[in-house]
Amino acid sequence: MSAADDTKEFPDPEEVYLARESASELSRLLRDRPSEDRALVQMDGADLVLPRHAIELLRSLLTQMAQGNAVTIMPVHAELTTQEAANILNVSRPHLVKLLEQGELPFSRIGTHRRIKFQDLMAYKRKQDAESEEAMQALADQAQEHDMGY
Fold first, then answer.
1. What is the pLDDT of residues 22-35, one digit of tens each?
2. Which of 52, 90, 116, 144 has the fewest CB atoms found within 10 Å of its own CB?
3. Domain covering 3-66: architecture
4. Taking Cα atoms as reference points, which of 110, 12, 115 lies closest to residue 68?
């Protein structure tokens, strides 16, 4: 099943429980076996050998599901529409288009449509998040200096 084939948005309570238990077990196994670079997984009598990175990604996915969150998997080379990118940044599409036109974020055109590389979008998001964190820390430091009770 691919991410595009899955139309279900949120895990049900049984899936949340199973995800929580599985994420805990995977965390324990990864912690107890730091030098292992692959894992043998059995499913319906078939043996699969998965690389450690896939197991780490699976643990992250299960952790999110255990918290009741919907999860989407997207390759880093994927190209997004302006609406998809705006949704990820939690901004309006017109605001995102303005950022693109100002050169804040690289994009390409396919005909008249703009496309944003997922990896470029996430780099922009990390930069914005870091700047926001710095600004919040500066405000907290200033509040401490002025003994504002925060």
1. 999 999 999 999 99
2. 90
3. 2-Layer Sandwich (3.30)
4. 12
At 75, list the tokens.
């390759």
Q: Give me the residues of the chain with pLDDT under 50, please.
A: 1-6
- The CB density around residue 27, as the number of other CB atoms within 10 Å, is 14
Query: So what's the pLDDT on residue 1?
Result: 40
- pTM strictly above 0.70: no
**Is residue 117 a contact partner of residue 77, using CB atoms and an 8 Å limit?**
yes
Measuring CA to CA, which residue among 78, 87, 83 is closest to residue 114?
A: 83
CATH of domain 79-145: 1.10.1660
Return phi, psi of residue 90, to 5°: 60, 45
